[in-house]
């Protein structure tokens, strides 16, 4: 049976004389999983993470992390959490090694040089351990934030938009690191608006927008349940418009009329494809290529947010 490590029950946040930043949220995350909270900027992702980490006080509800209430047993709950914030907030004149060691000692841990060395090596920071943070590149500074969050050996790691503004190579390095951390037993929760990040890493996905958690679902199950297939026909001769004879199918023209696109439910008993191809032959609409693909998580996300806007 899955073991819950995080339980969010009836949590909301409304600022005094201000907007409701977060509607009522219920969420359970299991030990050892990678959970992606997916949503556009301003959706409420950072507010929810800040409440869980004890940075923001909720207007209602409760949060339990590793068995500890984040309000009543704040110190124990916070020890179980490693947080990588969006902002690059570090002492710019400290060295990498000093700032990571300081973060470890803040939580009552000894200056465990072997553990810290391993963390810095995993993040490709060991050769920079004596460098001042102000002299590092933006990508390296981002790695330092992750090292600081991992310094006290937390049970659960929060990554708030971890790859915002970093290059593709660093993004993929971070993906590898996240998978390695999970293999070592860590639970990872990340917020992101990069669809490919959630698709690459997550076991489960939560979709949030307008302060409301629309759904939580296993990634593969979500894609199987809501995903569609798309068929593109590359036409021999371009069309100015979809002919009336093809009005039985929800077709669109793309690529300046050179591509006829059909989006369909792959699970349906009748996809309509054989009849469509037959009708195309009857109308003497020739095509030179046919390609199908599954919906991506991005397609599903856009559909979900569009439906509930």
From TrEMBL:
MF terms from GO for this chain are:
ATP binding; ATP hydrolysis activity
Instruction: Specify whether ATP-binding is a keyword of the entry.
Output: yes
Q: Which UniProt keywords apply?
A: ATP-binding, Nucleotide-binding, Transport
Q: Return the InterPro entries for the record.
A: AAA+_ATPase, ABC_transporter-like_ATP-bd, ABC_transporter-like_CS, ABC_transporter_ATP-binding, P-loop_NTPase
The cross-references to Pfam families, in alphabetical order and at most eight, read: ABC_tran
Cite the ABC transporter domain residue spans from the record: 6-235
Q: Record keywords: DNA repair included?
A: no
In Swiss-Prot or TrEMBL terms, this protein is called Multidrug ABC transporter ATP-binding protein
